[in-house]
Amino acid sequence: MTEEISGRPAVLVTGATGFVGGRLAAALVSRGYRVRALSRRTSGLDDLERLGVEVVRGDLADSASLVRAASGVPFVFHAAGRVSDWGPREAFLLANAKGTANVVAACQEAGVGLLVHLSSLTVLGLPRDGRVLSESTPTAVPASGDYYTESKLAGEEIVRNANGVRGLATTVVRPGAIWGPGDPNVVPRIVRLLRRGAMPYIDGGRNLLGLSYVDNLVLGLVLAAETAAAAGQLYHVTDGEEITAHEAIDAIADALGVGRPRVSLPRWAVLGAAAFVEGAAWALRLRRPPPLTRYGVRFVSCHARYDTGKARRELGYEPAVGFREGVGRLFR
Q1: In whole angstroms, what is the distance from residue 155 CA to residue 160 CA?
Q2: In 10 A of CB 180, how many CB atoms?
Q3: How far, in Å, CA of 5 to CA of 330, rounded?
Q4: Residue 234 and residue 311: Cα distance in Å, rounded?
Q5: CB 303 within 8 A of CB 130
Q6: Distance CA 303, CA 267 (A)
Q7: Which residues of the chain are modeled with pLDDT < 70?
Q8: Which of 85, 99, 118, 316 has the most CB atoms less than 10 A away?
Q9: Which helix (H) or strand (E) holds 10?
Q10: Are 215 and 180 in contact (CB under 8 A)?
Q11: Which helix (H) or strand (E) holds 41?
Q12: Which residues pair with 202 in a beta bridge?
């Protein structure tokens, strides 16, 4: 199955113009892979081109382009999708469910041997009881209006059901809150609230966060592809540290050089405020996420421990970047 170009294995990365996909492409190049990137863009590709990445025009909705991009590569990393807590349900399902189904079908038609799929720990719900969640924990029913989780759950199920069908093996990697330099989602929103002096702790911020520093996640994705026994498996990949929301917010504030939050609000009150803000945003037909959403509140106040033992045992995964070092890199 393996085709090599100039003596190096060829791989395809979807979402290579994004936060995780871009870091993944760079890591694969550094490990000697010949990387092909699927992109809708015709500009803004300088970083990929400097790395020597082959950019192939295509779209998750264009099955023919996906087959062309996947032809001749032994494995594919699917990191593309809609990552947000705002927008219409149809947009999420089109990108994260239908788009993933199209990628699976293209891999099968092109004869790809392995598909490594980037899912999310949000498919387990956002519990508040501090319990340990492993790969054997059942997935949760998404909260009403949580289209991101609904679509990620649908995409993950499509990938897992495709394992072993038409010669394709699939591996699923679930990260927590993905963060690091260049993060477009988690840290920037916290930063904006801190700079306005509008960031509260929720219930004191005592809850433990499931964090996945981007370079740690990339390592887990690569190991999932390079480990033969990982085919057909599911892995949790987090930073493996018990960091509370209070500690995380304080560390970001200190790195920014702004004041730490001065107030703690009950979760029910922040959820109520988020519902009001969301209602106003929908009435105004805002396309960009409002500063506060119910999903964001549930996300920041989630309290759970994610077991990474399986990834450590089977993949040899060990997080390379700790929390303090990661925060130090955020604003350099």
Answers
A1: 9
A2: 23
A3: 36
A4: 9
A5: yes
A6: 12
A7: 1-8
A8: 118
A9: strand 8-14
A10: yes
A11: none
A12: 265
Measuring CA to CA, which residue among 98, 23, 102, 95 is closest to residue 70? Answer: 102
Is 208:243 a contact under the CB 8 Å cutoff? yes
> Please, which residues have CB within 8 angstroms of residue 321's CB and are 6 or more apart in sequence?
180, 213, 215, 216, 239, 329
Distances (CA, A) of 198 to 94, 101, 261: 34, 41, 8
pLDDT at 9: 82
Integer Cα distance of 296 and 275 in angstroms: 11
Instruction: Give the residue numbers marked as catalytic.
Output: 148
Buried b (16+ CB within 10 A) or exposed e, 265-301: eeeeebbeebeebbeebeeeeeeebbebbbbbbbbbb
Please check whether residue 35 is in contact with residue 29, taking contact to mean a CB–CB distance below 8 angstroms: yes
SS3 for 204? helix
Q: Evaluate whether 129 touches 70 at the Cβ level (below 8 Å).
A: no
- Alpha-carbon span 137 to 124, nearest angstrom: 7
Cβ-count burial 40-63 (b if 16+ within 10 Å, e if not): eeeeeeeebeebebebbebbbebb
| pLDDT of 8 | 63
Count the alpha carbons within 13 Å of 6 in the hemisphere toward its beta carbon: 5
For the chain, domains (ranges, CATH) are 4-182+211-238+305-321 (3.40.50.720)
pLDDT for 47 equals 87
Straight-line distance from the first to the last Cα atom of the chain, in angstroms, rounded to the nearest whole number: 43
Find residue 243's DSSP bridge partners.
209
Q: Exposed/middle/buried for 181, CB within 10 Å: 0-12, 13-18, 19+?
A: middle
Contact 201, 253 (CB under 8 A): no
DSSP 155-197: HHHHHHHTTTBTTBEEEEEEESEEESTT-SSHHHHHHHHHHTT
The DSSP code for 289 is: P
